[in-house]
Amino acid sequence: MDNVIKNIIGKDISIGELFEEYRSQIEEHSSEVLNSFRGEAFDTFQETGIPSNKVENYKYTNLQPFFKGDFKFSIAPGKSEQNVEDVFSCDVDTLDTYTLYVVNGWYYPLNDLEGLPAGVRIGSLAQLSKDDPAFFKKYYGKRVPYLSDGIAAMNTMFAQDGFVIHIPKGVVVEKPIQIVNILMSEESLMATQRNLIVMEENSEAKVMVCDHTLSTDKFVMNSVTEGHIARDARLDFYNLQNQHNATTQVAGFYFEQHENSLVSTNNLTLHAGVARNNIELKLAGEHAEGRAYGLYLLDKNQHVDNFSYIDHAVAECFSDELFKGVLDDYSTGAFTGKIMVRPDAQKTNAYQSNNNLLLTNDAKINTKPQLEIYADDVKCSHGATVGQLDEDAMFYLRTRGINKEEATILLMYAFAYEVIEKIKVKPLREQIRGLVEQRFRGELDKCHSCVVCGQKGTEITCL
Amino acid sequence: MLSIKNLHAKIEDKEILRGIDLNVKPGEVHAIMGPNGSGKSTLASVLAGNEMFEVSEGEVLFNDKDILDMAPEDRAREGLFLSFQYPVEIPGVSMVNFLRTSLNELRKYRREKPFSASEFLKIMREKKNLVEIDSNLTNRSVNEGFSGGEKKKNEIFQMAMLEPKLSILDETDSGLDIDALRVVANGVNKLKRPDNATVLITHYQRLLEYIVPDYVHVLYHGRIVKTGGKELAHELEANGYDWIKKEFEDQ
């Protein structure tokens, strides 16, 4: 096998062998439902392995080199995952949220979620899948491509914990639900996280997931979030990524939407090492509306690859995509916008746009619209741009006494603004607005601070 | 205040300004007229510091400082203002943020305390009334979706906010209906003081009925070929530029 992990129990071992060796241990601690998927996922993984750039969907990001080397593999929650209260000094001033923590993929046992509306369940995947197997059987793994995608297969093989959000019929959760994902370790770590969001008919929630690294070790995170959005339900989903340069994160978001539902996703990558987002919205009920937005701000040798897939499976659905990136230094990025309009999906409206600002000659972006349209009565549009800062605007600002650096920041911010504007939760929008500006000014402690909750980290090094 | 001597400037080896001489004193209004392509807008751009043009010869002193080596922002901080012929739309940058940044940069340069948010808003309100700008415009992004007239009014509004010593108005009258022209001209007249000066660049005499110049210069082929009082503008209006061209070619 190609991907060999070294330091687990002090020997070289491939990811497949690792699974075989620890399978019984994993299964012993996990629920039956989770275990029932491992066999097929493993068979798939044995065929696919970790995707290289020879796999069409991973053309711009060869993941193989990042999934091998000297890592501890997180098979069970360790000591650090259970003893981190002192780090959780979350100081929420403007943002009133239900906040929960997930550490290295493990649901933090001391999460305190008081005051949730009646019937709403938020908790650990490990626990809930044991407590309510019927619920899990109905939803778990139904939308995740673990039979075709190597990363999803690997995630499903090792999946043990993560968060679950279940909003019952008709319930509106007013306060945003914030998940703070923390990576912290005393050695290089490879971890798995599996999340499930189930929104029943006519329910509503805002979910924001913040990804942070709290120690300077090398991390590889394989995370999958699956969402089932029933008819008339509304989900606002935000993923704010702020991880240090030695982090590789592959995050899959697989949402299925039913009739008249509304899902809006916004992937904001403020800082990352290597990040790959798989964002899939399946519009499976008429009049469903899917919106996928993203903003990536890269410098140094960072690499971010957003792969979106909007599947118009039935008629009369609407989708809108906007991804924007600012790339500095010798950073690289990729965007793929796959839109599938199936034969019966008449009256589809699908819009897609990807705009990039390259600040240097060394920065590079690959952008690829990929439209497959099998119905004839549809409206689809797509556009991609790659450009530099507008010289005319720059001159205009400078003639008003604003220096080049300040003008550059204003213009970069102006470019990013369109995506920030899509954030519907106003205090969150304000926070992110300020944060993006800080990021452009180089004032953001990129490595550690939790930007939304004000979590301060140790300013050891910015790699 | 402004002293231009033998200014030559080119773009991609094409010489556009071929030896401009001009002196502007405080309290004066100068009009620079001329046919299309004579170099009027280039002169404005070069003075403001547009790096697209290369100055190959000559000297420009502004308040006794050589400004040709200064960055555009420093020229602005010294008190030079250019009202653009085509103001640039900058979606995503709010008028308020833009103007406050701009004004405070100028104050910082003069070692003055930056305005607080409330002080700034108060000044903005006063100046808005002065130049009769629609108050909604300042709630929007810089020039975004503004009509031609609104953009020009916005330039004059910025001029009112920044209180420059020397304002160069590049074709501020072009594309304006009579009401907008009146608003723009009134704004300029109200801002006139004994210690500041204005250079109007225009193709037509129309604006000069509202803003009366002390001097009128005719620019042709990159050079000022004729200078006179305000009556020269009337002569140009009546007879066009052909006689100037002819005079020039006869020389």
Automatic annotation (TrEMBL), chain A:
UniProt domain SUF system FeS cluster assembly SufBD N-terminal: residue ranges: 17-179
Pfam entry (one): SUFBD_core
Domain SUF system FeS cluster assembly SufBD core: 185-415
GO biological process: iron-sulfur cluster assembly
Assigned protein family: Belongs to the iron-sulfur cluster assembly SufBD family.
NCBIfam families tied to this protein: sufD
Name this polypeptide is given: Fe-S cluster assembly protein SufD
Record organism: Marinilabilia rubra
UniProtKB/TrEMBL annotation, chain B:
Annotated ranges, domain ABC transporter: 2-246
Keywords: ATP-binding, Nucleotide-binding
InterPro entries in the record: AAA+_ATPase, ABC_transporter-like_ATP-bd, FeS-cluster_ATPase_SufC, P-loop_NTPase
UniProt entry tagged with the keyword Nucleotide-binding: yes
Gene3D superfamilies registered for this protein in UniProt: P-loop containing nucleotide triphosphate hydrolases (3.40.50.300)
SUPFAM superfamilies listed in its UniProt record: P-loop containing nucleoside triphosphate hydrolases
Superkingdom field: Bacteria
Keyword Cytoplasm set for record: no
GO molecular function terms attached to this record: ATP binding; ATP hydrolysis activity
Family: Belongs to the ABC transporter superfamily. Ycf16 family.
Protein name: Fe-S cluster assembly ATPase SufC
Lineage of the organism: Bacteria, Pseudomonadati, Bacteroidota, Bacteroidia, Marinilabiliales
